[in-house]
Description:
Shape: globular
Distance between the termini: 34 Å
Radius of gyration: 18 Å
Low-confidence stretches: 251-255
Structural class: alpha/beta
Helix content: 25-40%
Strand order of the largest sheet: 3-2-1-4-10-6-11-9
Mean pLDDT: 89
Strand content: 15-25%
Amino acid sequence: MSxxxxxxxxxxxxxxxxxxxxxxxxxxxxxxxxxLVAVDDGSRDESLAILQAFARADGRVRVxxxxxxxxxxxxxxxxxxxxxxxxxxxxxxxxxxxxxxLGRQLASLRANGALISYGDYxxxxxxxxxxxxxxxxxxxxxxxxxxxxxxxxxxxxxxRDLGDVPFRRxxxxxxxxxxxxxxxxxxxxxxxxxEPLAWYLVRESSLSANKFRAASWQWVIYREVEKLxxxxxxxxxxxxxxxxxxxxxxxxxxx
Length: 255
């Protein structure tokens, strides 16, 4: 499986402060057969110049520029349209990976005969403090995913044979994407690794920081995206709230 090409989709918008770290973590993977499809979403800082410099130095980097800022969903969709890999993975420009992330993930997919893989990751504050370790279940079904988005987008990877799903321009676009992919695949498996393989930067300005807004996005996904009935949506919402509260308790103390 070492020959499989992995396309890494990276939306970029005004990310010059973190971009070098993110790109280096992709190009430094022990699985070398990667292409980084970086989509600059109309950045007004040095992000585009940084990406272009990486592309000149390493032919695995392909840079696409959006004419106007269209948001993360549009940028990821542009990246998917340009990707040529056998597998697709995602990394935002302010997060980063362990060097063995893709290699271990590909091995896990092969060992389990699965089409979707995900894993543990660290939540890190802007000052570098480790806030917590996120450890999702060992295996996920569509029903499991209805309760909560257990797949951190920076850890998720799927086989292109599964087909691509367009990102919707809604809140929780990551969740809607992985919910549909797991429904198609039937299951997803956690990568076999003794340590988390990614770092997620928790920024004060994060859109997902507003819990009430996040809950309203969740309801829209149940009712308008998944087309669940009222009672089933209510039950799913109760499970979502329970998992959100449990997650908050786990995140209250660093590992």
